[in-house]
Amino acid sequence: MEQLPLILFLMAACWMDLARQKIPNWLTLSFIPLALAFHAFVGEGPAFALTGLVYSFIILFPFFVLRILAGGDVKLGMAIATFVGWQVFLEALLYGLMIGLPLVLILAWRRVGWQGFKTTFSRYGIILGSRRYLAPAENEVAGLKVPYGPALALGAALAVVLNELQLFTLVS
């Protein structure tokens, strides 16, 4: 039952990212102090939560700088790490990456279909042949902005469940 705040937070973040393609700051930035307070009074202690926060920032910020992840995804990861700690966060990140690729492909397929994939691959072929960059069109996969928050949330939920049940842990 101690994971209930995290589960509610992940559900809200998932829903907002899918509905609006944005995870609001009020959600992520309010969950971080809540996680700190939780661990200060009930959980593993404030050092546990702060370590998760710092490690997640160090890991995720370069992805933001390189524009691989959006700011909301980075803040979502930081909030998750503050609540679950750095070790479970690493597992959550790995599971999120494994879940993310098929999830992104499914969401892209729903938006542009087979024609969007064909257009993207054709454009890549032209780029390789001509050695010139062609910007992606709106109706192709490469031109889409696909939310990654649901993959991070599902990865976190999977990591927490596997650790709680002591079925499988990647980082001990």
Fill in the keyword field for this structure.
172 residues, mainly alpha, 6 helices
What would your notes on this structure say?
The chain is an all-alpha fold. It has one domain (4-164). It is 75% helix and 0% strand. The chain has helices at residues 4-20, 25-41, 46-65, 71-84, 86-130, 149-164. α4 packs antiparallel against α5. The radius of gyration is 18 Å and the shape is elongated. The two termini are 22 Å apart. The mean pLDDT is 90.
Write the layout of secondary structure elements.
Layout: H1 4-20, H2 25-41, H3 46-65, H4 71-84, H5 86-130, H6 149-164
Helix pairs in contact: 1-6, 2-3, 2-4, 3-4, 3-5, 4-5, 4-6, 5-6
GO cellular component, one term: plasma membrane
Organism: Oceanimonas pelagia
GO molecular function: aspartic-type endopeptidase activity
